[in-house]
Specification:
The protein has about 675 residues and is of the alpha/beta class. The protein contains 24 helices and 21 strands. Among the domains are: about 90 residues, Nucleic acid-binding proteins (OB fold (Dihydrolipoamide Acetyltransferase, E2P)); about 190 residues, Rossmann fold (3-Layer(aba) Sandwich); about 160 residues, Rossmann fold (3-Layer(aba) Sandwich). Strand 3 and strand 4 form a beta hairpin. Bound molecules: adenosine-5'-diphosphate and magnesium ion. This is ATP-dependent DNA helicase RecG.
Length: about 675
Amino acid sequence: MNNISVQDVKGVGPKLAETLKKIGIHTVEDLLYYFPNRYDHYEQKPLHELIHNEKVTIVGEVIHDPTVQFYQRKKSRMIVSLRVDGAVVKGVLFNRAFAKKHFIPGEEVSVNGKWDQHRLQITIDNYKMGTIDGSSPITPIYSSKGDIKNAQFQKITENALSSFRDQVTEIIPTSYLVNYKLPNRTDALENIHFPSSFQQLKHAKRRFIYEELLLFQIKMQLYRKRNREATEGNAKEISMKKVKQLMEQFPFTLTSAQKKSLAEIFKDLQSPYRMNRLLQGDVGSGKTAVAVISLYGVVTTGEQVALMVPTEILAEQHEESLKQLLPVDVKVQRLTGSIKGKKRKETLTEIENGSCDVVIGTHALIQDDVNFHNLGYVIIDEQHRFGVQQRNTLREKGILADILFMTATPIPRTLSITAFGDMDVSKIDEMPKGRKPVETYWVKHNMFERTVNFVYKEIKKGSQAYIICPLIEESDKLDIQNALDLYHQLQEILKGKATVGLMHGRLTTEEKEQVMNDFAENKVQILVSTTVVEVGVNVPNATVMMIQDADRFGLSQLHQLRGRVGRSDKQSYCILVADPKGETGKERMRIMTETTDGFVLAERDLELRGPGDIFGVKQSGLPEFKLADLVHDYRALETARDDAVDIVENELWKASEFQALIKYLLSKIEIDQQLLN
Ligand code: ADP
Ligand code: MG
């Protein structure tokens, strides 16, 4: 049916076929997979059985002519009084003044819409003259974007189903259908368009949700397989003896989660397959240590390593920690925008002739005139800041090195198996020993003095503090506290008691470095800053994170900011200063005070804002599904994912049972046939 033109359907002439094409319907299959976007259903119930705020159907007698009020320019509101079960019910109909003539006093009418139990009022979506007996059929409503009448849509879909019913072939293996109690494809198509009960409709939907998720997940698994294709000479001969020696000299012992992730990474590095791995670990979980040890392993083979970070501050910080942690004979260089002229030239030469082992830089590292001598391993820190695009850039540049992506964005499981389904994932799900959860408080602006006193008390104990402001310049409109003002204010208040530093995006790189160094060395005790410190910054001696106008930040950003403290065994504090006006703002503050678990936060964020906003759909590369909902259908998603792994990894698809599925998939996506050999 995917090679039968929609024009072969009874009732579809050339003109209608043109219109259908515009909404992406070319074949009979396209038509049958154009599902209704809602269903109308009239089922009458006595008034006392109706549920507040639900969709209901009411049959009543029109008492008198409806009244219509017009407002704004084109809007109208019609009110009709109905006598129902001896009571008077008010029906409200918006912007359909023309319907007035249909409501004739003394006549019976059936209306359908949202019920307000307290006002005995119904907001009418649909109406029908006359009564209905008990219940009417469930009517599919198609969104045809205005060009095709619903009745016509129904008709041609019905025709397509009756003429081509025998040509609908099953694509999901029977064993799966039986296992999950899913209807076959023909029945499901029939029931999603013309369900005789809501039970049947639900079954049909379940099948298509599974079908679309399974197809998607198989595709991701195939991509994953492609990404891992064997590259000659890529099996690295790492000196594990040297790696062990390095680990013994580390200032701390690794957590078992760090060790496990390292083992997974080393296994990939030593295999001939190209690594394409995501290292996920909450802020402060110690991803840098994992990166350093694994990159040292690659250095022992004589190959080069590139470490990419999103900001210059982070590049500099990583350079410092690498120099501290790695043996002195490992040559580390930094290549960022601030490195210019002669120094830049020298560095480029060293990268090119191979005398430099590790290069740290921003994304310019893979884009500019940088030629590596023998690049064997790329690590991308805070990968969410780079976006999916960079993930592909590396591949397009023909860089066949092993790649490790590191991220602290706690991605809910369902999103991560969707957005990162084509990658292997390692998780650091444990904090270094002795860490205390950051105590979080939400205070109002009028408690400013008390908060500053609290900060000062911490400083007297030898600790340091960050104070974050959302913007650097006063904006009347947003009424956001001004970082500069605050900086001057604090300097005044704490004169002779503490040194205050100022950091924001408009400083030059040198100035930023200077401020960051002063803070790292405790020459500055309080750092007033915009969100430039958000990602990755590591100053373990800081124990207070105070965030001004905290309600202006999203949950994941607040979590990132809070992650700047709690990096030692000292008790740390996060103070959210906010007078949120809206309910979501308040809810966000509450959630922050209730949990420090990034994954819990991400789940809550997902509930509050939906998957679209969590880190920007475009960035995360989340696909759009027809029926499946990533929040509600997470179980189907996990099942589909497990099945897809099974089908691809264990080569189940070779069995005859799977031929229809694979053939169908190949007709839908572009993928090298070779993957299936
Ligand atoms: P993130 O995962 O957020 O990048 P970092 O790698 O910056 O975290 O580590 C946070 C802090 O924890 C650093 O000061 C680091 O030295 C320290 N750290 C990392 N691993 C351990 C460990 N196993 N034991 C104790 N401290 C550790
Ligand atoms: Mg980090």
